[in-house]
Amino acid sequence: MIVPMMKVSIVVMDKEKEKALEQLRDLGALHLEKKTVQSEGLSRLLEKRTRMENALGLLRPYADSLRKHKKAAPKSGLKADADSLADEALALAEEKKGLHEQLLAQSKEQSRLAPWGNFEPAALAELAAAGITLIPYELSPKVYEALGDDARVIVLDRDKTTVRLAALDSIPGAEPFALPERSLSGIGSRMTEIRDRLAEIENRFCSLVPALPVITGAAKELQETVEFESARAGMDVLAPSGDAPGDFAERTVSWISGYVPKDRVGVLKRGAAEYGWALIAVEPGPDDPVPTLLKNNKLVSLINPLTDFLEVTPGYNEVDVSLWFLLFFTIFFGMIFGDAGYGAIVLVSGIIGIIKTAKKGVPPAFKLLFLLGLSNFIWGTLTCSWFALPVEKLPEFLRNISLPLISNVTVARSARDEGLVQQNLMIFCFSLALLQLSIGHIIAMVKTRTLRALADLGSIMMLGGMYCIILNLIASNQYRQIPLYTPALYVFAGGFVLNFIFAAYEGSVGRSILESLKNIISVILGIANVFSDIMSYIRLWAVGLAGAAIANTVNTMAGPMLGHFILFVFGITLLVFGHGLNLVLNVLSVLVHGVRLNTLEFSGHAGLTWAGTAYRPFAKRIKKEAQSV
């Protein structure tokens, strides 16, 4: 459920506002109203935070590399503070970038100079000082032939495209070869110096890895300082008129506004009484940017790790669909992964995570992992899918506990039975669509509580009618014997009429009809949307089928290797890699397709936009850590 909020404004003396903000942060209840603020101090803090974050971004790859290769960071005896460590990392990165640019430039110069051989450019200057001028040129054979026999040149090298020569006089119309700063050997020495310095920089980066916790802690503290400065800069000031009696500074006040859950208003009121603030708490207006705080039971809250990861929050004036999100996402996960073997891996991973963290408090993510793995395991058991192994190679009891309507055991019997199973799976997908989308409209009906709810009733009728029409289109003859087509058309048409009349209802049926007539094209396109939304759920079957096909291909490739002693290791490696890759692809498929069906199709029918802002109170979130290594 969405927790009711109150809008709170707190007024303090301007000279005490920083102290008041510290006290307010200690209370940790007020979600500050977002404002666009600027101040010199805030700009400095943001710049400093950016430097810290950039330094962390530079060092983390080195930490990952050392961890991957199981190497310890070089000992360096770091004692500098986080600022100095971050500055050093950034300076090293800048130097590294410049050295790479120099190395590239030297490499190009080396390639350009290589055909001329190793000579000292300074020697040509010495000859010129002695009265002997030698000007290097690179000419095409055609231009060289045009010089004639009278040209005073010394040909040093030539190939099919270029003639390299030294001329005693300038050649009209030709550009002399640009002399390098150093010889080929000098360029080689400089490149060696650059590479040696780059190696030193890489080693220094590795030695800075132990500073990661210090810089990370400092960055978190800095984030809180940024929040505090933003709050301070965002406080409005009310100065008294100039002719009022008393000291001007003593009569200047500041105030700050925000939102707090109704059940925590008392915390702020007690704080106001203790610290001498003026406090006003009112119901938020319809246009106020009220944050959303969800409060659900432990089971429904299992979906929070996913919604937090996706950073999706319902608006304050919308509805909380966490229960339905969790229920259907769990089903979608099982269908998309679709394999009991994979489900067992996910399930065991969740169990291990729960056991390891049981003493400290199990994170919701492990509980969600357990639930999703259980869903996957059950679905794979019902369909008799175990690492895409042929059903005839599976134990008989696994075949017996599968559900014949959707089981691979049935698929293996004949092509006709395979077609029926696929049809049953598609019908199940469409039935899920009808159920979930109808629930969305029921949620919208309960929220509306006006005649506009009849439009949602019409949408449910359209969904039901379209569902029957789709079944008639894709089902086999045995399903077509049920006379659903004509009644479905009537139900769909009745739903369309209700939707047309009441979709834009705002107190007047006539205006609602007029509004629908104005948007007649969108209204008609809504028919196609109903069809596409139901058909969209076929992705659950299709994506699951694709994952099974990949797993089967891996088994087919690795199978022959397992019969040979020498190739056995390669076969096992291929199986582990192939199925591991398929697991990763399935995770991506769930994030793309399983989440989409909840946040787009279902949410669209429930009137949910996920445009909310999560409740985040102004509070201290970390303890200060020693800034040393």
Tell me what the structure shows.
By secondary structure, the protein is an alpha+beta fold. It has four domains: 1-33 and 237-291, Alpha-Beta Plaits; 36-113 and 188-233, no CATH class; 119-182, no CATH class; 300-606, no CATH class. Helix content is 60%, strand content 7%. It has 22 helices and eight strands. Strands 1, 2, 6, 7 and 8 form a five-stranded antiparallel β-sheet that branches. A three-stranded antiparallel β-sheet has the order 3-5-4. The longest helix has 39 residues, at 568-606. The radius of gyration is 36 Å and the shape is extended. Residues 624-629 have low confidence and may be disordered.
Kindly report the average pLDDT value. 86
From the alpha carbons, calculate the radius of gyration and give it in angstroms: 36 Å
Give the low-pLDDT segments.
Answer: 624-629
Give the overall form: extended
Order of helices and strands: EHEHHHEHEEHHEEHEHHHHHHHHHHHHHH
Largest sheet: 5 strands, antiparallel
Name the quaternary structure.
Answer: single chain
Question: Beta fraction of the residues?
Answer: 5-15%
What structural category arises from helix and sheet content? alpha+beta
* Total strands: 8
How far apart the termini lie comes to 45 Å
What's the total helix number?
A: 22
The tally of domains stands at 4
Secondary structure: helix percent? 55-70%
